[in-house]
Structures are given as structure tokens and as C-alpha cells.
Fold Prephenate dehydratase.
Amino acid sequence: MPASYAYLGPEGTFTEVALRTLPETATRELVPYVSVQSALDAVRAGEAEAAFVPIENSVEGGITTTLDELVAGQPLMIYREVLLSITFALLVRPGTKLSDIKTVTAHPAAQPQVRNWLKAHLPDVVWESAASNADGARLVQEGRYDAAFAGEFAAARYGLEALETGIHDAENAQTRFVLVGRPARPAAPTGADKTSVVLWQRDDHPGALRDLLGEFATRGINLMLLQSRPTGAGIGNYCFCIDAEGHISDRRVAEALTGLKRICLQVRYLGSYPRADAGASDVETPRPGTSDEEFVAAADWVARCQDGRF
Ligand SMILES: O=C(O)C(=O)Cc1ccccc1
């Protein structure tokens, strides 16, 4: 298997910075791709061992291009996650002044994070989306746009200068990135893990979503992401991307997935992996009555009842 990780490039993305925080990157070749889709395709085609892509940010929620890639096509699996605090720099060619800027570019996920700043400082500027923040910087270097929002670290790589740094509409904005590979045995549980799934309901009926969520709720499983995505089958047809607290080897999670498999049209398992914010949760886990021991003891009691040994 090739020891390379694909990532959303080009060089100088936040994605690259987040990826380099993983110790195993020291022994991997890191290969930039122009889009999330092409990075994930490299994994599907066996050209890369795994791909590292943004999946969620604390300002706008799920990054839909990534979710849609994971929802459809040949199954992939999340191996790891990384959280990165994000502030933007406004990068320009040397000598450009704020008053010279007529056009600006960045990744679409950057826009909601800098919207207020733009309104206050560059209200008439024309925004155009770039394939990534570093790609926006590259386009400014080429003269296609006057300015790009990107990480300050991207300035040197593209011969630009930061006219302004620390731009962030929301305090503590974070982006979550995931390392995605082909289906494999999930990493061993750490005690602070997350399980990601996609659910398709069997039929439309009142309370259908509540029925799905009930499988988690009755087993005391906290949810960390719930994002609906259109299935493409028409207005009102959605599947649900869910991140739940816990590991598939925890009884409560395995039982919730068993229940979901019974009642859903389809369940896609996207992996169980260590939480990047381990220790930050104030939700007591496991909830009373949902530990592995309690599941085993209860199943044991039912077996004894079935046997007439109660
Ligand atoms: O990694 C990047 O630089 C990206 O283009 C994705 C992104 C977009 C907005 C915030 C963080 C990462």
C-alpha cells in the first residue's frame, strides 16, 4: 500500500497545517489535490493510503461537499479527526492597499467566517469562490484576484503579504478535519471516541426522525453532529449524517446501530475514532444503566429468564 496521504491543497491550506499535527505524517508522503473529491478519489482508486479533508466548522456546520462524498459512492471510513482554531489573513500582492481591492477570493467555507469583517472594511468588494484558501492565494499571486482570505502562513508560499491578520467574525472558530481511508477495522477504543453514521429512513411517517434518534437516546448516547443531506430523490428526501459519542465496540453503541439497522432503509457506518476534544465534554458518559457491564448483566438476566433460572 502506498505510504501517502492525499489532502486538500495546494500547499498552504489550513488542511495541510492540521494534517501535519498528526505524528504519522513524519513517515508519509503528503500529496496535495485540487479538491476534496479528487483527494477522496485517490483513496478509492488505491493511489493514496488515506485523504485528509475538512468536514465541519463551528460557524456553518457540515462542509457539504465532504459529507456528500462520504454519503455516496464506494464506502470510505473516518480513521482520525483533528480540530484547528481558524483566523484568516487578508493576503495581497506586495504594495496593494485596502482601497485597491475590488475582488477577493477564498474557499466557500471561509465566507461566513469573514462576512462581517468584509461588510465593515470592503463593503463593495466582489467575492468569488476558490477551490481552497491556498488556491485563492495562488490566484492572487497570478493576478486573477486582488486579495485572498487564507492562513497567514500561506503568504510566504505565494509571494504575498498580509494586509490584515487575525480576521474572524466568530470568537473561537474551529474547523474539524478528518483522515479518511478505505474500510478497515476501527482503531481500538480510547474511552473518548466518536462514531459516525449515515441513516436513510425506510419510509416517511410522523416521528420518523424521532424514531431514529430514539435508538441513541434510549441508550444514553449523546449526539455531536446531525446534518441532513438531500438524497437526490426529490424535495423532502433526506438522509442524516450523525456523529454519536462512543465507539462501535461499546455495547450501547453496538446496540443502537443494531436497532438502526433493523428500522432504517440503509445505514452506512463511517467509523469510530478518538475524539479530538477528549476531556472537553461535560456530558457524563456512560449514562447510568448504559455501561458494558450493565448491558451484559441485563442480557444475562433475560437469558436466565428464558431458561427459567430467575
Ligand atoms: O484548508 C483550507 O485552507 C480550506 O480551503 C478549507 C477550509 C476552509 C475554511 C476554513 C478552514 C479550512
User: Anything to note?
Assistant: The mean pLDDT is 96. Residues 8, 13-15, 54, 57, 86, 107, 109-110, 132-134, 175 surround 3-phenylpyruvic acid (CB under 6 Å). The first helix runs from residue 14 to 19.
